[in-house]
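Researcher: Batch entry, complex prediction.
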Amino acid sequence: DTGVSQNPRHKITKRGQNVTFRCDPISEHNRLYWYRQTLGQGPEFLTYFQNEAQLEKSRLLSDRFSAERPKGSFSTLEIQRTEQGDSAMYLCASSLGLAGGPRVADTQYFGPGTRLTVL
Amino acid sequence: AQSVSQHNHHVILSEAASLELGCNYSYGGTVNLFWYVQYPGQHLQLLLKYFSGDPLVKGIKGFEAEFIKSKFSFNLRKPSVQWSDTAEYFCAVNGGLIRTGRRALTFGSGTRLQVQP
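Model: Structure tokens for the complex:
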């Protein structure tokens, strides 16, 4: 399977615990994105990396959220002190990053997501 | 701030009926537009996209969409739906890439399509 992969697929945790999700992008894709999707809504953007640099962050990404992509390959999203409102599907996407430059559009390909339930 | 409206939340059609799903966005500058589909139990998949050029774009599985700049719309169409088209459809917009370099997609809330055999 050469698509975007995410682990774990499901995570159940108690309020106040920390959780970490992993995303492996499509090979050779240098852009990686995190989104959150709640029931009945479309995905909402959280953050975006170009290689290891975090270039965009949404206001949704509170201080309890941190994302990293240390070697420009896989990425992790950590949520500290989870709250019930954090329950959602966390989606990762990647895009190729064409040689045309930083302002050239490309297509984001999504992974299966990690479903987080905070009890 | 950008926003995307999908006015049809739930659509029920019989097989062979024609489909049109509405998508309107709010952004006055250059936009990149997408339709994604999520089949039951599967992840989001790209149906089609518009970056520039011919405003009528064709995607996979017989879908097409038309970008009408004056109406800020990017409606999805299919002349004859099949039971296998049962899924949730999301319209997404990226505006401001050229001006600001921002790549975030703004999604609509989705339209659930149910095709009855």
